[in-house]
Specification:
The protein is of the alpha/beta class. It has three domains: 70 residues, Orthogonal Bundle (Arc Repressor Mutant, subunit A); 130 residues, ATPase, nucleotide binding domain (Nucleotidyltransferase, domain 5), CATH 3.30.420; 165 residues, Nucleotidyltransferase, domain 5, CATH 3.30.420. The protein has twelve helices and 14 strands. A five-stranded mixed β-sheet has the order 5-4-3-6-9, sandwiched between helices. Helix 11 links the parallel strand 13 and strand 14. The longest helix has 25 residues. The radius of gyration is 24 Å and the shape is globular. It starts with 13 loop residues before the first helix and ends in a 6-residue tail after the last helix.
């Protein structure tokens, strides 16, 4: 139960009730489509006349469309309702240090267009590169009404200013992305941390969403991020900085992190850490008697995954070390939060047959609360980061409104 904040509250009005009922109907259509108005009334408990008013408005606004007619023993044949996937879309932007991906998706996060561009080191140059791509995407698919743009970032966004304020792996300082992108496109822009976006993707679109109220997404990439959904709500804290478990200390006086701290979890359990482990072992080998060839170019994480699949011992050892440190951090999450499920996101999940047992063994050895948390991987082919950007906009229309 949420406490009423008497310094910042909104009283319930007739408009509040209409908004809540509209969202209930939208969600029932999304979950049960195709569905008739009569069934909507039965599922919701609303009067049929109320359901008719809401659905007619949704049809008028292109959110919903009528499909085939059903059979009835007597009276008018019911018309089944669907979400209007062909007419309503959402644009998603997933920003990573090297590459940014743009996509246009329907209301079920099925992408109908997608492209990528290099992520510029300078944020102003990045905005100048991104804005025309977004405008072009809108113009090329003019038959689709875009409801907004969701942007996931490898950092944290201040809730009040909506500025990016903490992004050590991106290398940008304090920057306003929201205003110039809204001015360039004429669409509302929602910014969010990438791990939070992944948590929302799992919560809204994932196969485990039914019955799950507490979920943690752990994103493993250049760094480590965590997104927390607790009691059906995304946990952001008062400033938007909640969830930076990637920068908790797991090795006292350990290696320096880009954030300025030492021994951070992401320094030891990220893709970057795997590259360091592998390169360090390769350097040791080159310094030995068998080293006769000139050093090869630095590997990327995909190379290490591929070599591990082929049984390369240095690559296998690098992946095992990452898995061990992932297990240490995940055990802290299990002990401290006891979520229903922890979802691991990232390329590392391609090696889950090796990584998963190590993580689970360490969690078992370090967490004694008997929390029944499941630790599961996502499918990297599903692009949870980009799908999460769609959820950022979708929740504005389908999520429970904030009142009181």
């Amino acid at each position: 139960m949420r406490k009423i904040d008497l310094t910042n509250f909104q009283v319930a009005t007739s408009e509040t009730a209409r908004d809540i009922n509209r969202r209930i109907v939208l969600n029932l259509i999304r979950n049960h489509q195709p569905i008739s108005r009569a069934d909507l009334a039965r599922h919701s408990g609303l009067q049929r006349s109320t359901v008719s008013v809401i659905t007619e408005k949704l049809i008028e606004e292109d959110w919903v469309k009528e499909g085939a007619s059903g059979h009835a023993p007597r009276g008018r044949r019911p018309r089944f309702l669907h979400l209007n996937r062909e007419r309503v879309g959402i644009i998603g932007v997933n920003v990573r240090p090297a590459t940014t991906t743009i996509g246009l998706a329907d209301l079920d996060a099925n992408f109908v267009a997608q492209e990528s561009l290099p992520t510029a080191d300078d944020p102003q140059r990045f905005i100048a590169d991104l804005a025309p791509r977004l405008r072009n995407l809108i113009e090329m698919r003019s038959e689709i009404s875009c409801e907004g743009i969701g942007v996931s970032l490898p950092g944290r966004v201040d809730l009040d200013s909506q500025r990016l304020v903490f992004a050590p792996n991106l290398g940008w300082g304090l920057i306003d992305l929201k205003t110039p992108l809204e001015e360039a496109t004429g669409l509302p822009v929602e910014l969010e941390n990438a791990a939070n976006a992944c948590a929302l993707a799992e919560f809204w679109f994932g196969p485990r969403r039914e019955g799950v109220r507490n979920l943690v997404a752990v994103t493993v990439s250049e760094g480590i991020g965590t997104g927390l959904i607790l009691n059906d709500q995304l946990a952001r804290g008062s400033t938007g900085m909640t969830g930076e478990f990637g920068h908790i200390t797991v090795v006292e006086d350990g290696l320096e992190c880009k954030c300025g701290n030492r021994g951070c979890w992401e320094v030891y359990a990220s893709n970057s850490a795997a590259i360091r482990y592998y390169s360090s072992s390769s350097s040791t080998a080159r310094n030995g008697k068998a080293a006769a060839k000139s050093p090869a170019a630095a590997p990327v994480f995909d190379d290490i995954l591929r070599l591990a699949e082929q049984g390369d011992p240095k690559a296998v050892d690098a992946i095992n070390q990452v898995a061990r440190y992932l297990g240490i951090g995940v055990a802290l999450l299990v002990t401290g939060l006891a979520p229903d499920v922890i979802v691991v996101v990232g390329e590392i999940t391609r090696a889950w047959n090796r990584v998963g047992p190590i993580i689970n063994a360490i969690v078992k050895s370090r967490s004694f609360t008997h929390a029944p948390t499941r630790v599961v991987p996502t499918d990297p082919a599903g692009d949870p980061r980009l799908r999460g950007t769609i959820a950022l906009v979708l929740q504005k229309h389908f999520g429970a409104p904030l009142v009181a």
